[in-house]
Amino acid sequence: MHLVPAERAHRNTIDDHRVCDAIAGIGEPTRVAGWARRFGLLSEPGRLTLLLAVHAAGPISVTDLAIATGMSDTSVSQALRVLRTAGAVEAHRDGRVIRYRLSDPQVHDLLHRLSPCPATTSH
Fold first, then answer.
1. Which parts of the sequence belong to the HTH arsR-type domain (predicted)?
2. What are the distances in angstroms from CA 108 to CA 3, 6, 9, 89, 116?
3. What is the pLDDT of residues 44-73, one digit of tens each?
């Protein structure tokens, strides 16, 4: 029971190795908090919809995201501000247009598991 913190070492276990495996699987508290924040971002349908759209088509503008998702430009901008503050997306200026793309590799990997990007088409 080498992974059990001292304040819990007095408790009786049923399977010592399973307790250690569980503690190792949980990992560092900061890592858990980071994933909880990511899942919080994904828990709101509008943000998840935007992330899926950016994942599939990024870099993409607010106007194009609004058309693709059926959301208003204002709603898209507000949600993107939250996603940008959280580090999930980043904005890049392309002349007068600002385009968004994913910036968090873990979010990218998670979205890819939810919905692999289709082959891109040339227009």
1. 27-122
2. 32, 37, 39, 10, 10
3. 999 999 999 999 997 999 999 999 999 999
